[in-house]
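Batch job 17 of 40 flagged for manual review because the log was empty.
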Amino acid sequence: MRNIINILDLSVEEINELIRTADDMMENPDRYREVCRHKILATLFFEPSTRTRLSFESAMLSLGGQVLGFSEAGSSSAAKGESISDTVEVVSGYSDIIVMRHPKEGAPLVASMHSTVPIINAGDGGHYHPTQTLADLLTIHHEKGRFENLTVGLCGDLKFGRTVHSLIEAMSRYSGVRFVLISPEELKLPSFIKEEYLDGKGIEYQESTSLDAVMGDLDILYMTRVQKERFFNEEDYLRLKDTYILTTDKMKLARPDMIVMHPLPRVNEISTAVDKDPRACYFRQTYYGKMMRMALIMMLLEVTV
């Protein structure tokens, strides 16, 4: 039995296999409609989510399986004080696989120690979001055709952005990748990420407070939301929330083949006018996410077509 807590729990070869499976699913959907028949996915979402939760539910239903679970801690026995370990001990007896989101870093890892079925981390605080990274990787695979020799701009909340942390970890395994880290001083990438995955691997990167200054250098621009729920006081959030807004004027500074990604939800960091630009990939990204979650469920349940 395997758990996916961090994107590094998957090897490059396994990620490539997931991509091949997702590609085949897109070409031959009928082949996969019943592969998880009689299997049950439990969704334990202790933190609000729309896209990720519905994406997992849609993925399991599209494989012929069933879904049970809750979408907020208040509707579970956590509201009565039940521990994560007790919840998971019980739910793993009701299901074949569990997907879990929790506001506390490390909670899915704790859950995995008390589960008899595979656990997938759907986001734990500011730590990791491995299945969003799988969505990101399939997007890059389809839109850019490669992972090597790309300049990736990461913009916005790099301090608390778990999607950013997971993507850096994943992309740091490919040759010729360069990162441009665009953020206000208060939301810079944490030192432990830089030390382990950038400095530690000799990967080239630069830090900038200006999006305009680096737009022309990028193959990929990964925009992120400044997350109100990660701030201890509203004053800091209000001061930083509109630091970077991607507009059609800014897009004129970019390369013709640069792509724009975003894990969603967006607030106002990308103007809706940008949606019409063919380089805007964030809605396609959500579809790719469902396909990679389908492939991952199959892998962990060890089912084949």
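Reviewer: the log was empty due to a logging misconfiguration, but the result itself is present. Residues 282-301 form the longest helix (20 residues). Unflagging and moving on to job 18.
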